[in-house]
Amino acid sequence: MRTLTLVFVATLGLFSAQAWADSTIPYPYSGTIAPTNFFTAAATGEVDGYFVSGGNAGALDYIQMIDVSTDSFSGWQLPNHGTAVGTEVSFGYVTAGDVLEFQIYDATATAPGYSNGLVFSSNPADSYDGYNHAYAATWTLGNPLAPMIPSGVYIGMEDLPGAPFTSSPYGSADFNYTDEQAVFTNVDYSTAPEPGSLYLLGTGLLGLAGLVRRKLRA
Q: Which pLDDT belongs to residue 187?
């Protein structure tokens, strides 16, 4: 019986360790740039954001959501210094399918020509350094990082520029994506399709439309 008990406890320990590993969200490949993701509104309604952590970032950071489809901005929310874990803020009303973008504002960073902070984004084209500064993962209720936060999409942000912009007095980016961490509800994400894939999809649809027109004329 003792042997069976020990085996059960050991097995339970393995499951517990695995459950913890599965729920560990912060970017696992520190120092590398996360895959660029494409964010959309899951349904018509509010997008709520819940503060998870600011890591140990020395910089004062904020996060905002842009509804690209309607060109609307949530404004800078959830400062990483002084915000309580689990704090909920509305990031605005969206329509199902709207394209969304997430940005981080490092209010303390400076660079040539930029004296009032730097902005980095989930869209590399909108980042100061041209890199992706948002890491996304699925978040489930009960995650040990903040068990009270409901299921949604976890987004971790990096707040410093990467190479070749490494001469800042604040140092260069470590790309650990933990400087501003939040969970968003009513958001879907997927790896952004390559421009070439979009081109092929577009030409394929055009070809299909032409085929349908020819059949209708026949």
A: 98
CA nearest to 60, candidates 116, 1, 16, 4: 116
Is the per-residue pLDDT at 209 higher than 70? no
The whole-angstrom separation of Cα 147 and Cα 87 is 13
How far apart (Å, rounded) are the C-alpha atoms in residues 120 and 75?
A: 14
Determine the Cα–Cα distance for residues 132 and 37; give it in Å rounded to an integer.
9
Q: Report the Cα 191 to chain-centroid distance in Å.
A: 11
Q: Please identify which residue in the block is written with the tokens 């009303």.
A: 93
For residue 148, the model assigns a pLDDT of: 96
- What's the mean pLDDT in 117-131? 93
Nearest CA to 26 among 213, 177, 203?
177
Distance CA 158, CA 134 (A): 7
Amino acid code (one letter) for 71: D
Cα separation, 161 vs 152, in Å, equals 27
**Looking at residue 78, what is its pLDDT?**
97
CA distance 152 to 51: 12
Partners of 8 in the beta sheet?
none
Sheet order of strands, 152-157 included? 88-94, 45-53, 180-184, 152-157, 134-139
Say if CB 78 and CB 49 are below 8 A apart: yes
Residue with tokens 């980095």: 120
CA distance 153 to 122: 14
Identity of the amino acid at 135 = Y
DSSP letter (8 states) at residue 145: T
The 8-class DSSP code of residue 122 comes to: S
101: which strand partners? 66
